[in-house]
């Protein structure tokens, strides 16, 4: 197989993940993981990601249908949604930081309370136990009960049963014990690496290393095994060298295949869509730097509060900030170079805005 060019890798990066729209369960299974984000501008990241891959998807469909899907809210390289069968690769999860005796006692009390109730809203836990406030990661003040529930969910004591207006409703869960032999831990680590490579390929070498480091969030107890599996993966994955960068992708895929031909559609992508998630890869493939600026002070923003990367054919050519006012879309566009001219681009942009309005159920 001849080594692919950068143009071939670019087309491959786009087409391999923009599969023909399918059902919601099939899309999540094929993606392997869908990153979540609470900001709605104009919709949550998980909805913006799925609308490109699920037929007739509407904002909020994942939350509405969650209880009927074999899907879980949990952690992988970050927080999101993943097929339930992947949980056995990470649970029972062993957190890096063990709880002290007092926190363990509180968790046991809350767990008994949840089991008695069946499922709980964080507000019920706070009202019953009055855990008070605590200093959070960013130095601000947070509800201590909410923080404890988050920790219990992370450690596999609770699962998200559903969401009510965006708030997690928890129920107790017991993850089955797994074979903890060295060979089985190595197998799980290798499976996790395969999962993230298949989601984010093609990957520059530095991005592959970074992703495996992020697996320390979903499977901190498998850190030695994931490092060993990474060394093996570098030998087993397909790879090439372009302009001083080593690229990796699954050995059973061919980036130079003619089937990786982009269509004529224009798409506004979520900031965490697998096509644009890796900012290092983004710059290598498209030649400019994209930044997510929702947490950047407004005077310092270059792209806007929630800039959606604009993909046309196999090129990310700019971005859009989309708001809704009086039931109508109000987009603001920016371009890495300049806006394309011609009727084809204008028609493609109009089509995407129409799809966006349908996705948001605007009339």
SSE map:
Blueprint: H1 6-15, H2 24-31, E1 34-35, H3 45-50, H4 61-65, E2 71-75, E3 79-83, H5 101-117, H6 122-129, E4 133-135, E5 141-143, H7 144-154, E6 158-164, E7 167-172, H8 182-200, E8 203-204, H9 205-218, H10 223-236, E9 238-242, E10 245-249, E11 266-268, H11 279-286, E12 308-312, E13 315-325, E14 328-335, H12 343-359
Antiparallel strand pairs: 1-3, 2-3, 4-5, 6-7, 8-10, 9-10, 11-12, 12-13, 13-14
Q: What kind of sheet is the major sheet? A: 4 strands, antiparallel
Instruction: Give the CA-CA distance, first to last residue.
Output: 51 Å
Figure out the total of helices: 12
Radius of gyration from CA coordinates? 22 Å
Judged by helices, strands and strand pairing, the structural class is alpha+beta
Q: What tags apply to this protein structure?
A:
38% helix, 12 helices, 3-stranded antiparallel beta sheet, alpha+beta, 19% strand, 363 residues, 4-stranded antiparallel beta sheet
Structure description:
With 363 residues, this protein is α+β, with helices and mostly antiparallel strands. It has twelve helices and 14 strands. The protein has a four-stranded antiparallel beta sheet. Helix 8 (182-200) packs across helix 9 (205-218), helix 8 (182-200) packs across helix 10 and helix 9 (205-218) packs antiparallel against helix 10. The protein is globular, with a radius of gyration of 22 Å. The N and C termini lie far apart (51 Å). 33% of the residues are buried.
Short description:
With 363 residues, the protein is of the alpha+beta class. The chain has helices at 6-15, 24-31, 45-50, 61-65, 101-117, 122-129, 144-154, 182-200, 205-218, 223-236, 279-286, 343-359, and strands at residues 34-35, 71-75, 79-83, 133-135, 141-143, 158-164, 167-172, 203-204, 238-242, 245-249, 266-268, 308-312, 315-325, 328-335. The protein is built from twelve helices and 14 strands.
């Amino acid at each position: 197989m001849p080594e692919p060019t950068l143009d071939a890798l670019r087309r491959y990066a786009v087409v391999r993940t923009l599969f023909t729209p399918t059902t919601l369960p099939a899309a999540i299974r094929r993606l392997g993981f869908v990153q979540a984000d609470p900001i709605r501008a104009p919709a949550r990241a998980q909805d913006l990601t799925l609308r490109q891959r699920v037929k007739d998807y509407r904002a909020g469909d994942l939350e509405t249908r969650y209880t009927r899907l074999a899907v879980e809210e949990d952690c992988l390289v970050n927080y999101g949604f993943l097929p339930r069968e992947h949980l056995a690769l990470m649970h029972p999860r062993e957190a890096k930081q063990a709880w002290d005796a007092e926190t363990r006692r509180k968790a046991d009390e809350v767990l008994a309370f949840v089991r008695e109730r069946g499922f709980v809203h964080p507000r019920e836990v706070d009202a019953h136990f009055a855990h008070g406030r605590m200093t959070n990661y960013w130095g601000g003040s947070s509800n201590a009960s909410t923080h404890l529930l988050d920790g219990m969910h992370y450690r596999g004591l609770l699962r998200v049963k559903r969401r009510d207006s965006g708030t997690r409703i928890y129920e107790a869960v017991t993850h089955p014990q797994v074979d903890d032999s060295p060979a089985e831990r190595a197998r799980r680590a290798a499976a996790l690496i395969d999962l993230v490579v298949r989601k984010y390929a093609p990957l520059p070498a530095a991005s592959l290393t970074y992703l495996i480091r992020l697996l320390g969030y979903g499977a901190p107890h498998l850190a030695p095994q994931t490092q060993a599996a990474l060394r093996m993966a570098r030998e087993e994955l397909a790879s090439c060298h372009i302009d001083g960068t080593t690229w990796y992708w699954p050995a059973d895929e061919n980036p130079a295949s003619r089937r990786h031909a982009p269509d004529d559609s224009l798409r506004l992508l979520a900031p965490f869509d697998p096509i644009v998630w890796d900012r290092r890869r983004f710059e290598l493939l498209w030649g400019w730097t994209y930044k997510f600026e929702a947490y950047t002070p407004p005077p310092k923003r270059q792209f806007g509060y929630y800039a959606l990367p604009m993909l046309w054919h196999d090129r990310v050519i700019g971005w859009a900030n989309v708001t809704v006012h009086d039931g109508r879309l109000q987009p603001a566009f920016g371009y890495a170079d300049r806006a394309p001219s011609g009727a084809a681009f204008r028609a493609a942009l109009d089509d995407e805005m129409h799809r966006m309005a349908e996705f948001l159920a605007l009339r």
